[in-house]
Amino acid sequence: MAEHEEGIWLQARREVSIVELADDCGVPVTVLQELVEYGALQPTRAEGGDEAYSAACAPQVRSALRLCQDLELESAAMPLVFALLERIHQLEERLRHVSAQLTAPHR
Amino acid sequence: MEYKDYYAALGVARDASAGDIKKAYRKLAHKYHPDVSKEKGAEAKFKEVAEAYQTLKDPEKRAAYDQLGTHRPGQEFRPPPDWQENFQWQRGAGSANEGAFSFDDLDLSDLFEGLSRGGRGAGRTHAERPIPGADFEVTVHLTLEDAFRGTQVDLELQMPGYDEHGRVRHAPKKIKARIPKGATDGQRLRLRGQGGKGINGGRDGDLYLDIALHPHALYRASGHDLYLDLPLAPWEAALGTTVEVPTLAGAVNLKVPPGTRAGGKLRLSKRGLPKPGGGEGDLYAIVQIVNPTVLDERERELFGELAKHSRFDPRAHFAGASHG
To answer: Could you please report the per-residue DSSP string of B50-67?
Structure first.
């Protein structure tokens, strides 16, 4: 019999701790710490030592990890892959926004 | 068991070197990896290529694969009688009835997964160490109406798992996934624990649903905001009017102010897609001014009168610019 499941959105616009973000991404915290160390992942807030991160980047973290594993890239490539995927994601969002505002020729 | 030609999947000869196999895989992975490829059917193609590479990159698995002989892709076949003894395929702990074992319900990839886990003490490690289940990702296509209301999708996935002997087996798994309202293009939904089964106390993997919205005939989505073209006749734009505008929740009346310009955006607050945390996006009607293509005599007369009377110059700014 089919199981009935309700999911959670990964990109909900919320701030999370690095531990929660790692859980969202399904990766060890050390993977994210490395991204932070290389400056590829930046906290959205760092008040009193409690750093917060945007949960919106979870899909890009997962994609970067999959690409590195599947293409047998060295782990040092992961921050670069992640940063490039983030950039592509931002540009695609921008493109979607601009395209949505372009009027279609009247039929 | 169905035969798959792993060499053909990678586009290499059967005597290709390990280096050539790696090169061919990387080339195809760049082309078809689901995280970068926009090609239709890329995900399925990448799975095929990755499965071939997983076997051919490992010298022991490649030798075992070669020993299966050459068959037509898709052809039913059985490994030669001495194949499993030569390659220590894991048949399950304490298989006293080895002769009765059947390969018929086995997938070729499961066979080679079993090979890697068999012999050389791998079984003992496997028996003690918790192994997390694999995560899976699938793309789910939704209409904008589905995204607005929320919907349920029926998924049937082939999930690898382990049977009672610890052997890898692909089995169909049916999941009814509820997509909460407010899905947007490119969003990812996580279904915790719905991926591959963990073993020895390892956590079950997760299932990730990548949302892709079908293009809509009327609306274009940007996040939770929607955009709609609003054609107006020149006199409606000039004089102002009230028009009926379709929204995903039903038609509403929109007041168009006098002197409305083409390209102007009229906002219908909270008529976009619902947001997961509460609230809604907006609907923007983008004004298009549309002229009648055929004029009757009276219309032509009225436009002519307007042309004679009006001092409006839509190109007044040209004059200043030409001296600049």
So the answer is: HHHHHHHTSHHHHHHHHH
